[in-house]
Amino acid sequence: MSHDDFAASLSSLLSGASVTDVRRLSGGASRETWQFSADGRQLILQRQRVGDGRDMGSEVAVLRAAHGAGVAVPEVLAAATDPGALGAAFMVLSHVEGETIARKILRDDTYSHAREQLTTDCAIAAARLHAIDPAAVPSLVATDQLQLYREVLDTVGYPHPTFELAFRWLAANKPAPTRSCVVHGDFRLGNLMVGPDGLRAVLDWELAHIGDPMEDLGWICVKAWRFGSTKPVAGVGDYDTLFAAYRTESGVEVDADIVRWWEVLGTLKWGIMCIMQAESHISGAMRSHELAAIGRRVCENEHDLFLALDGRW
Fold it and tell me: How far apart are CA 136 and CA 264, in angstroms?
């Protein structure tokens, strides 16, 4: 599709709006992301990459439910799973100004106030998300994350003794579920749009599912998502602040030991996800230098699991 045809298709989707300044943005292993202007308003297009078989319609539904629940998210303006209009499933979103690059959020003076606020902001966003009635997003399915990633690793056929050790610890220490709700599934620094004032939007909802809300709290604390910082919550905050703010917004007490279990599982999951993303490139299913490079991070997660199981992270 030519650039002019692409702009014309976007215009048609937006009731004939004048579409200009269409440009491709970097980032996103499973989505192509474009920014453009429609009648002078800045918007974002996300289009599904070839080889990604997930249902974007489900992602759109959970985004709309989250927006209605007061979670900081972009507004969905148009969407379709039929590839006819733009060659692939897509969604058009409101543009949210801010920064997603962890290095800048953690170090630049511009975000010094945001760093003080971000732990509380994330707790509030998570609490509001977890309050959504799962019936509002019937396309989401419940998944046992431990069983799922056991099966995923078994399909690879590569030996990873460190991961096997982690699976044994997780099975031996598995807590009872706290409750069942809508879970983001990738709630972490890098998927948060941050401005100088704090959190502006939670992005990248393609892994949303029905599960235990403590999964999201554990995932945002995984060592990989601290990006070198010593602070456990997204590299900016501490556990007590996160748990207290979540309790204030939701009325739900947080058990730190349960969150720790999810943090260990999150570290294991990310290691396995690194294997699978690299395998997508190696197999030719989705050719991408980004996916290939992610494969090198498997050993980082093995190291982090040893620290986690020894209580030294």
Answer: 30
d(CA 82, CA 14): 16
The answer to whether the CB of 264 falls within 8 A of the CB of 169 is: yes
Within 10 A of 27 (CB to CB), how many other CB atoms are there? 12
CATH topology of domain 102-309: Aminoglycoside 3'-phosphotransferase; Chain: A, domain 2 (3.90.1200)
Domain boundaries, the chain: 3-94, 102-309
CA gyration radius, the chain: 20
Q: Is the pLDDT of residue 279 over 80?
A: no
Q: Can you tell me which residue has the tokens 């975000």?
A: 111
The pLDDT score that the predictor gives to residue 61 is 95
Measuring CA to CA, which residue among 203, 225, 192 is closest to residue 118?
A: 192
Closest to 86 measured CA to CA, from 26, 28, 2 = 2
Give per-residue pLDDT as tens, 79-110: 998 887 788 899 999 999 999 999 999 999 99
CATH superfamily membership of 3-94 = Phosphorylase Kinase; domain 1 (3.30.200.20)
Kindly state the tokens that stand for 62: 């959970």
Residue 179 sits at φ, ψ, to 5 deg, of -170, 175
Read off φ and ψ for residue 19, nearest 5 degrees.
-100, 125
**CA dist., res. 44 & res. 22, Å (int):** 10
In sequence order, the β-bridge partners of residue 93 are 44, 76
Phi and psi (nearest 5°) for 97?
-75, 135
Q: Per-residue confidence at 262, pLDDT binned at 50, 70, 90?
A: very high
